[in-house]
């Protein structure tokens, strides 16, 4: 997954992605080394989808700030963002099916210009 080095706030994160044409999957991880299997699953999943999604991982400090702003307590958390808007959030133990479903909805919102 591509790494975003640092983000100071949720509003900064979202404003950085307002002009990005591709949907974005951001992985938040507030604990060191707790997401190895999630990385493997996401990488394999993204290789199999028919549309482009830009994967990103925030550093640990940025993940903590964003998680606090969104009141997320489970780890890891996934944010599905398009044009600076959070379209979906998955937090904690997440199945491949849930991620696929969120990606499909994200792609549908991109195609139709609608919020999920």
Description:
The chain is an alpha/beta fold and 116 residues long. The chain has a single domain, classed as Glutaredoxin (3-Layer(aba) Sandwich), CATH 3.40.30. Helix content is 41%, strand content 22%. It contains 4 helices and 5 strands. Strands 1-3-2-4-5 form a 5-stranded mixed β-sheet, with helices on both faces. Helix 2 (36-48) links the parallel strand 2 and strand 3. It is globular and about 30 Å long.
CATH superfamily label: Glutaredoxin
Low-confidence stretches: none
Query: Which fold name is given in CATH as the topology?
Result: Glutaredoxin
Count the beta strands.
Answer: 5
Rg calc: 13 Å
Mean pLDDT: 84
Judging from the principal axes of the Cα atoms, what is the shape? globular
């Amino acid at each position: 997954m591509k790494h975003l080095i640092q983000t100071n706030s949720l509003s900064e994160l979202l404003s950085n992605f307002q002009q990005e044409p591709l949907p974005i999957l951001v992985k938040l991880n507030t604990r060191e080394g707790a997401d190895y299997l999630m990385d493997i699953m996401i990488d394999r999943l993204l290789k199999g989808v028919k549309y482009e999604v830009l994967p990103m991982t925030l550093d640990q400090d940025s993940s903590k700030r964003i998680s606090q702003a969104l009141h997320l307590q489970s780890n890891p958390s996934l944010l599905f963002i398009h044009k600076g808007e959070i379209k979906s959030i998955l937090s904690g133990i997440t199945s491949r099916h849930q991620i696929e479903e969120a990606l499909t909805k994200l792609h549908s919102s991109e195609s139709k210009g609608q919020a999920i």
